[in-house]
Amino acid sequence: xxxxxxxxxxxxxxxxxxxxxxxxxxxxxxxxHIGEVEAITTAKKVVVCGSIIPASNYSxxxxxxxxxxxxxxxxxxxESHEGEIDGETSLNQFKGKxxxxxxxxxxxxxxxxxxxxxxxxVQDSTGSILALTLWEGQALPIFKITAMDLFKRLVxxxxxxxxxxPKEIHDIEGQIFAFxxxxxxxxxxxxxxxxxxxxxxxxxxxxxxxxxKHELNLPQEPTSDSSNExxxxxxxxxxxxxxxxxxxxxxxxxxxxxx
Length: 259
Ligand SMILES: [Zn+2]
Fold this sequence. Notes:
Bound molecules: zinc ion
Shape: globular
Order of helices and strands: HEEEEEEHHHEHEH
Number of domains: 2
Helix content: 10-25%
Strand order of the largest sheet: 1-5-6-8-7
Radius of gyration: 18 Å
Distance between the termini: 21 Å
Number of helices: 6
Strand content: 15-25%
């Protein structure tokens, strides 16, 4: 399941599909200026467009996930401690087995994997800011490396993944994206909560059309690698309306596990 989402080349869309995404982002989905999102009182998907700035309440960029269902695992879920020497640091978090209490896994013993949960803010030309969360399926086409592989690379280079922001994530600062975000009931109930991204794109046609149609006047991007401009991400399987992942950390919004 995870592997099927990892190929960024598969996300490059042929022209007909790109037109469909252009319609989806520009014509078929309600647009909202960033400053107006928090006034929305109905659960629905809307498109916003803006540039990425560092999150004001920055927290860890990954979480420990069940390899089967992507639900958050904590040390309390840990069942076996094979391979551990120095307690629960670094790669040891991903050794041994965990008990997953999600509805899907129902207490099954599972392996753990690092997955992206990157908090950041997005800003438009009015200066309004919205907190978004980037999950694994949306992050892969941008970073071109899984969170687990990035985690291993940092550890191998002697860095502590809990203490640094990887270059891949640092590099998206200032970049402009169009986001189709999922406004859920908990966003409406909790002011200032972080919104989940349903799809995102850097496709220049889509962003240009949105800028024109809604007079966005977004700032120029810093010169950056333009090789990833054409992708439109697929909705993250684990972030669909029906199967929200149950996130248990206190530092981000708690998602409801739907029945
Ligand atoms: Zn699970």
